[in-house]
Design brief:
single chain, 472 residues, alpha+beta, 3 domains, 15 helices, 17 strands, binds zinc ion
């Protein structure tokens, strides 16, 4: 692929990030479940209809959807939806926890928080909202994040409702599941100041890290979505949606630039990101005149007192740096430990005789290795037990691995197998092994010793003893 000179091409790019909030839905007490595993016990139908905006003009995107003339089927589980989702009851009061999370995020993104929050109705025409609109409110503006290529401004932070999830589309009908409808969503829009395709990935990853730092957002596939706006000189703006992995962003953007260079200027539109880094046409760009005030929800004044009382979480990036500084762990190990969301400090106190790096390695590396080798889960309690035995001197360092394998594969471990053997006894045995195998190399002798004492003696100790006796 040819090198891209972003500056010369007049590359302009901004991100829009959507992140689901954990807890309860935005305007009812239903739990924020996005994939209810229950069988849907409620089903009803509506017809798609386009709604004229304030200008009386029917939105272009609405027209596009209308042209399909479809019936919409809604399926819901009463465990994750109520009358609010069915649009048979007005929205309840705004979920205070979700508002707090949105405000925290604004402050972490250095935004100016609005004085009063006014929810708006944004027309949605594809049927993904039973009411035909999505509720959205501006929470913060004019923020910024620092990146390796300079400051990137955050234009807006909004709090809005998730849409229902499309589960089936046929010739004359679309089916939606309502579990996800009404789940709180943070929408963050950056200024079009991203410098190149790799920078887009970095900006997305920093914003994702800030969102996860709150500890209150959903994790896993689909819980965060990155839409990338891309344009080059002489071409209209294209929006790319549906990235499965942040890693795919740079190559997909570069491919899109090459595609634009090969095509005449087209009307701006939305494209879908494919796993093979290509994109495909999805739909026209939605028009702008589609918002009107939501009168069912009171305007919320944001006072200085409210903002002052918010406790801001420590950023994951700051925590990582502290780990690196304090324990001299690698960045990778530090990041993995933080991801596990455990109180590492407490492990150091609890297993005071164990080297902190060994604890960290067992928690991260050993756990991963055993899991992938045996395809069995190594749980935190298993690790705590194994480290406990070692800390109490019941077993040796090497036995920790073996015990974890036993726990994971057999559910239990026979500690007798790993009881530490008296040093004198081992020394005696080592002398004998040396005597019997005069021609063997050091490595082969070690192999003989460990065959007999695996887990019962520390490998390092055994090699020291072997060395000592070989020299004699
Ligand atoms: Zn509900």
């Amino acid at each position: 692929m040819i090198m891209i000179n972003y500056k010369e091409l007049g590359f302009k790019s901004g991100l829009e990030i959507h992140q689901q909030i954990e807890g309860r839905k935005l305007f009812c007490k239903c739990p924020a479940i996005v994939n209810d595993e229950n069988e849907p016990n409620i089903k009803f139908k509506r017809k798609l209809r386009a709604i004229a905006g304030e200008t009386g003009k029917i939105d272009r995107a609405a027209e596009f959807e209308m042209s399909k003339d479809k019936e919409v089927i809604y399926e819901a589980c009463s465990s994750s939806s109520c009358l609010v989702e069915y649009d048979e009851e007005p929205p309840h009061e705004l979920n205070k926890d979700s508002l707090d999370i949105a405000l925290q995020i604004c402050l972490l993104l250095n935004c100016k928080v609005v004085d009063s929050i006014q929810f708006m109705r944004k027309t949605v025409v594809d049927g993904s909202n039973v009411s035909g609109f999505q509720r959205t409110a501006l929470i913060g503006t004019n923020g910024f994040i620092n990146t390796s290529k300079g400051k990137v401004n955050i234009e807006t932070v909004c709090l809005e409702e998730e849409a229902a999830k499309k589960v089936k589309e046929e010739n004359n009908s679309i089916t939606y599941r309502l579990d996800r409808l009404g789940v709180g969503l943070i929408e963050i829009a950056t200024a079009p100041e991203i410098k190149d395709s790799e920078h887009a990935r970095e900006v997305a990853s920093i914003i994702g890290m800030i969102l996860r730092s709150t500890g209150k957002v959903k994790r896993g596939i689909g819980s965060i979505r990155q839409d990338v706006n891309v344009s080059i000189k002489g071409h209209n703006r294209i929006e790319i949606k549906g990235f499965q992995d942040l890693k795919n962003i740079p190559r997909t953007i570069d491919n899109e630039i090459h595609r634009q260079l090969k095509t005449k200027n087209e009307e701006g539109h939305v494209r879908k990101a494919n796993p093979d880094f290509t994109t495909e046409y999805q739909r026209p760009m939605p028009g702008a005149s589609r918002m009107y005030p939501e009168t069912d929800i009171k305007i919320i004044k944001i006072t200085k007192k409210m903002l002052d009382s918010l406790e801001l979480p420590e950023l994951i990036s700051e925590k990582t740096n502290k780990f690196i500084e304090k324990y001299k762990f690698s960045e990778e190990l530090s990041r993995e430990l933080i991801k596990m969301d455990i109180d590492f400090e407490s492990y150091i106190h609890k297993f005071s005789k164990v080297n902190p790096e060994f604890i960290a390695n067992v928690l991260v590396e050993v756990r991963k290795e055993i899991q992938s080798r045996f395809d069995k889960e190594v749980t935190i309690p298993m690790i705590e037990n194994a480290l406990g035995y070692y800390n109490e001197g019941k077993v040796g360092k090497d036995a920790v691995y073996e015990i974890l394998v036993d726990f994971a594969t057999k559910g239990d471990a026979d500690l007798k197998k790993y009881e530490q053997v008296d040093e004198k006894e081992i020394e005696k045995e080592i002398k004998e092994i040396i005597h019997k195998n005069k021609n063997l190399s050091f490595g082969a002798l070690m192999g003989e010793i460990m065959k007999k004492y695996r887990g019962k003696v520390d490998g390092k100790k055994a090699s020291e003893l072997l060395n000592k006796h070989l020299k004699q």
